[in-house]
Design brief:
about 100 residues; 3 helices
């Protein structure tokens, strides 16, 4: 019983990490729509340094979320499902926005 509970606890921590990473990537891509990141040199430099990692995260997070969601037996209350939806909406918004 304790092993099963420890396994569920580990899965829950992983789902929180995936969800938080998805939110960070999403917020990173919406940041330039809210403020001019190049107005402040330090923020612009950090934005440029993180660009390649965030583009990889933008396309990797839906795949990772779907894999873990399928391992979670497609539970609609899972954070993996919400992470997948947020990632797909972010990609659609970035592709269709000007």
């Amino acid at each position: 019983m304790a092993i099963r509970q420890a396994k569920k606890s580990g899965m829950f921590k992983r789902s929180i990490i995936i969800f938080v990473l998805t939110m960070i990537v999403t917020l990173y891509w919406y940041l330039p729509l809210v403020i001019n990141v190049y107005r402040f040199p330090v923020i612009g430099a950090i934005y440029e340094i993180l660009w390649i990692f965030m583009i990889a995260g933008l396309f990797a997070m839906p795949v990772v979320s779907f894999i873990f969601w399928s391992k979670n037996k497609f539970d609609l209350r899972s954070l993996y499902f919400y992470s997948l939806i947020i990632s797909l909406v972010s990609i659609l918004f970035l592709v269709t926005s000007n």
